[in-house]
């Protein structure tokens, strides 16, 4: 998987008041990428394409450089207290992606250049919770690692958190472009997680992301650079022969991961869920997808803001949880299972 290279850039004029905004403009000018102006990163118009599907595909290779105005952070349960907003959108094409619901008609990739203001805000949240630790999740609205070779804003955030006593950073990725992050002064305050899944799920539903092997090799590098390491197995899908598929995943993970990466390891487990909105969008954007989204076979779980979702029925969810837990106990007896949701 090659590192992401945007085909089209939009810049908000306000972004040029920040060093990172100017730096990115220079960089893309030199590379000859088309640059357009947009009045607001919230309303990017005229993304090329003759129909919605083409526009969607082009939006996923469009980078919008903007200023984050809302400095109030969303909460981010269960993995952290707050979501730190560095970017939104992703170049990947995972059929099940939760951004289908949360970003809806804004699938383009946005990066925010006012990092100092974002860090000031993070600082306030930390002070509010002091003396307790405050965890910030950087991957709620994007796969930031997939983008960071261009912006280095994640790297700066890692170093910023590294200097704090009470701040912790975490994010998850399906990309292996981690080399520039290996020398960041993280001070053990960042947990670097990789998203993994059965071979079936990766092959069927995760186009445009790094392969399993690439992700695990990157995980080894990250562990060597002394980052706390974790894996998110998500979404857990009850596909044909899922028990064998997930067994095989843990077996391969254990075989490939270097020994030093196996200490202080965490696992987070998330079962597949979908909303009605997401289902409609996914069927339009990935019409040939084999992703099962049959409401009748699922349990409806009420959610905030009327965003109720369909999860597996209790018996199936219990089976999933117990099965995966057995695999973790068998292959990674010292690892910590943080949650199943
Ligand atoms: Fe969505 Fe993550 Fe896939 Fe990107 S890599 S499309 S954020 S699930």
Automatic annotation (TrEMBL):
**What cofactor is this protein dependent on?**
S-adenosyl-L-methionine; [4Fe-4S] cluster
Query: Which Pfam families does the entry link to?
Result: SPL (PF20903)
Q: Does the keyword ATP-binding apply?
A: no
What's an example GO cellular component term for this entry? endospore-forming forespore
Going by the entry's taxonomy, the superkingdom of the source organism is recorded as: Bacteria
Q: Which part of the chain is the Radical SAM core domain? A: 76-304
Keywords per UniProt: 4Fe-4S, DNA damage, DNA repair, DNA-binding, Iron, Iron-sulfur, Lyase, Metal-binding, S-adenosyl-L-methionine, Sporulation
- GO terms for biological process? DNA repair; sporulation resulting in formation of a cellular spore
Q: Give the EC class as a word.
A: lyase
- Keyword Metal-binding in the entry? The reply is yes
The free-text function statement in the UniProt record for this protein reads:
Involved in repair of UV radiation-induced DNA damage during spore germination. Can repair thymine dimer 5-thyminyl-5,6-dihydrothymine (known as spore photoproduct (SP)) by in situ monomerization of SP to two thymines.
Q: NCBIfam families annotated for this entry?
A: photo_TT_lyase
Protein name, UniProt field: Spore photoproduct lyase
Q: Which organism is it from?
A: Halalkalibacter akibai (strain ATCC 43226 / DSM 21942 / CIP 109018 / JCM 9157 / 1139)
Record lineage: Bacteria, Bacillati, Bacillota, Bacilli, Bacillales
